[in-house]
Amino acid sequence: MPTETVQSTAEPTAGNVRRPNVLLLHCHDLGRHLNVYGAKTVSSPRLDAFAADAVIADQMYATAPQCSPSRAGLFTGRWPHHNGVLGLTHDIFGWDLHADEQHLAARLRRAGYRTELVGQHHESRRLADDQVAARLGFDRVQAEGLGEVVVERTTDALRRLAAADEPFYLQAGFSEPHRRPGERDAPGVMGFIGNHLQPDDSRGVEVPGYLADTESAREEIAELQGAIKFMDDCAGRVLDELDRLGLAENTITIFTTDHGLALPRAKCSLYDPGLEVAFMIRWPAAGWTGGVHLEPLLLNLDVTPTLLVALGLEQDGPAGAPAIDGRSFLPLLPGEQPDGEASGQATRGEVFGELTYHDYYDPKRSVRTQRHKLIVNFTAAPKFMDPSQSWVRRCIPVHAPNGNIGHDPIVELYDLAEDPYELRNRADDPALAEVRADLLARLGSWMAATDDPLLAGAVTSPAHRFAVAELQPATAP
What we know:
This protein is α/β, with parallel strands linked by helices. The protein has two domains: about 20-345, Alkaline Phosphatase, subunit A, CATH 3.40.720.10; about 350-465, Arylsulfatase, C-terminal domain, CATH 3.30.1120. The chain is built from twelve helices and 15 strands. It has an eight-stranded mixed sheet, with helices on both faces. The chain has a four-stranded antiparallel sheet with strand order 12-13-14-15, covered by helices on one side. A three-stranded mixed sheet has the order 8-3-11. Helix 6 (about 145-160) packs parallel to helix 7. Mean pLDDT is about 90; it is low at about 1-15.
């Protein structure tokens, strides 16, 4: 990663204002489970207030339903099977960005931005902070930490960066509401509250419709709501500091998450609860404010190109850098004056999703339109990968009340208007035969156009290479 900074000569295209700062707040495992998105029993007043003063994407989806691949897509603008992160980046899982991948931080640093990372880092191989900084293009990295630590470090970073002459890119990630073991967990359970949080049922408890509404589920959802309430307060404290420093007007402030809730049939699945993500963006100086809703289908790998175009920066990167896969949705934002062709190019007719590895090999690909979802399963793995990280499951999917028994068919097809929780597979329904054929063609064309490795056969994980390396002394001739 080059260490010198090169000031871009391009001018920002949005609003004819001085190049803004960028503050990107993100968290783990949230989906759209906020009050502003309709989760009425969730207490999220700070993010609800931010949304009321921002632009809200109603249908933003992750490229993948698990941590590292989704984040890698978000920060590079490239499909996980392009950027190299097809599974988790920590410990034995070992996935990593390809050496020539361009993180958003590296792109902005070359344009003269000060760049810092605080808190959650999960988009490249987990290394020491200085190695992550050099690898991704950050001037400074302070990775990990619970919410209170992230708030303290982020507000400190804001104060330091506000005193500098250059604009800044500050990426701050909260681990909450990820599951976390704690002393209050029952045997066999990993809950959401660890040792530092409290459940929250102050507004009641509503179990998502794809899960059975049981006493144990309500207990678990109350814990989840408590973790979200805590994260919401942490995000609000960072936003308060941004206001106190007088930076909000000319800062592009984003809040988002990586993928859906860490509940069965959500995270680690290609059903909507696994891929849907909250996304809010505000830039008052350019008119990106007022609680405006974006209704079109969007992908989180569109975020990086949107920011680059808004800042007047090239998307190509240095010579030989791989091309961005996402597309800018800048023409859809308020205050812009796009022509019809630009608006059409920013609007997606479908969004694609991919799962290859998480805890184990479970390759799937999906395509979703406004009305239908089609999923293709490439192995006979269990019906869904369970993200509860517990021997004892407190939330039970309504479609599998007696356990995760059996396997999914090769093709699944759902009518989302009639069946929003994707419980009735209609892949063999003659009434949807044309829809099935159309979506299979779209998915196959996308996989071929993007050189998806699944078309060539099974994908081997880094763990396999690590194991072979261990055997080499014994197998050498």
